[in-house]
Amino acid sequence: xxxxxxxxxxxxxxxxxxxxxxxxxxxxxxxxxxxxxxxxxxxxxxxxxxxxxxxxxxxxxxxxxxxxxxxxxxxxxxxxxxxxxxxxxxxxxxxxxxxxxxxxxxxxxxxxxxxxxxxxxxxxxxxxxxxxxxxxxxxxxxxxxxxxxxxxxxxxxxxxxxxxxxxxxxxxxxxxxxxxxxxxxxxxxxxxxxxxxxxxxxxxxxxxxxxxxxxxxxxxxxxxxxxxxxxxxxxxxxxxxxxx
Amino acid sequence: xxxxxxxxxxxxxxxxxxxxxxxxxxxxxxxxxxxxxxxxxxxxxxxxxxxxxxxxxxxxxxxxxxxxxxxxxxxxxxxxxxxxxxxxxxxxxxxxxxxxxxxxxxxxxxxxxxxxxxxxxxxxxxxxxxxxxxxxxxxxxxxxxxxxxxxxxxxxxxxxxxxxxxxxxxxxxxxxxxxxxxxxxxxxxxxxxxxxxxxxxxxxxxxxxxxxxxxxxxxxxxxxxxxxxxxxxxxxxxxxxxxxxxx
Lengths: 244, 247
Fold this sequence. Notes:
Largest sheet of chain B: none
Largest sheet of chain A: 6 strands, mixed
Strand order of the largest sheet of chain A: 5-6-7-3-8-9
Helix content of chain B: over 70%
Structural class of chain B: mainly alpha
Radius of gyration of chain A: 18 Å
Oligomer: heterodimer
Strand content of chain A: 25-35%
Largest interface: A-B, 30 and 25 residues
Structural class of chain A: alpha/beta
Distance between the termini of chain B: 26 Å
Order of helices and strands of chain A: EEEHEHEHHHEHEHEEHHH
């Protein structure tokens, strides 16, 4: 068995609100897994439960066959994570942020090479806050890759980017995929999901409403486009119709 | 060790870039020392005293930097790093978020020590100051004051709901202590009623310890202040460990 990420029966509620209910997923080595759903559907909670930054109420999680809560120190040598919100210090430069990140790992990659590869080597001396949206996201991919990870988690990497920057980020992710990187990502853009994801899971109010490939999702819906199929699964189309 | 070294260099750079600690923890204490020195010179602290006014104030002045770092710098920084999710980011790396707190406490300790050395050199060179008491006792008291003030800071930063609230609490702690604890305005020149109010502030008690130690006064005078500071430090550390919020 070569499941890099394995979650079974994951459930998490806040007081009375169920954020994630009975979520199971497995991500095979070298594949890209997309976790989809509207805002508040439970994507971020699911990712955080899998990474161990949130305690789940029931279920089981393994990343690289390790428990992220009890084997954090060993496991996260080999895992790259990009959270949704930017999390860096005010007044820190690109090279300083890369340096500090590299110092956290035993076998960190040369960040200069990564910055060059993703076309932001000329920004090394710039403050992170002064980068454009696209440059920031490329930097965050660099940070996630610094540990030379076996798997990366990317939470809404392209939200807030313009069409051009979004395409650039896709190109990078496709390149990583071709190199065999295992990825779990969340996204709002179905064109992106169709291009990148081998398997998807659609969440609605914490429940899994679809699990499979994008082709299967389209086939199971009465539509022939992924975006329409996604809206059909999440019922957002129905709501939109009512508004009209 | 590699992690600690890289982090301390980078975080020190970031801190110096911010300028506020440089102003409040390094320049401010020196400025107050020079002002007191110019006004009171090397006059005796009071008629018949066998030590100068500057000698009396030295212990108090060394706490300005501790207070700036402990109850202003640390709470703001800890709550800021939490709201920016920097602490949370460490939870998905092999390094504990505790590391960044240790790094910050080290940096604020460095500010305090640099301030202490600069104050001593300035006082010794320009106002013929010599410490009459035991240096060992003074350093013991200094360490206790530092631990107490820093544990207050980490507690406030760790349990305040957000940076805004942390900022308000930090101001409420810092400014009264800065003005009324005797750190800047000498305790001895305050009217009796004001002194009684000042005695409530933890830093006032800390300053009593440092004054007694630096002037070589009898150790039994400082039993109560030492007890107050120790209890406070232990409580704050306990609350921090128990209720610290990483995000």
